[in-house]
Fold:
Amino acid sequence: MKKFFFGMTVDDVALADWCERDNLCRLMDFFAARNLPATFFVVPLDEESGRPLDEMP
Structure:
């Protein structure tokens, strides 16, 4: 079986509201439903407020 690798970046400044928790959950559900491994690199603070992402509404 041939393996394929895919890279994706998401610029939350260019894609308004992308960094919201619901959207991240939808993306993780997409990978899980297809049994696809994924690696996420995230910035731990919201750029505008400086608040940790897990404290965002």
Notes: The CA atoms of residues 31 and 37 lie 7 Å apart. Residues 1-57 form one domain.
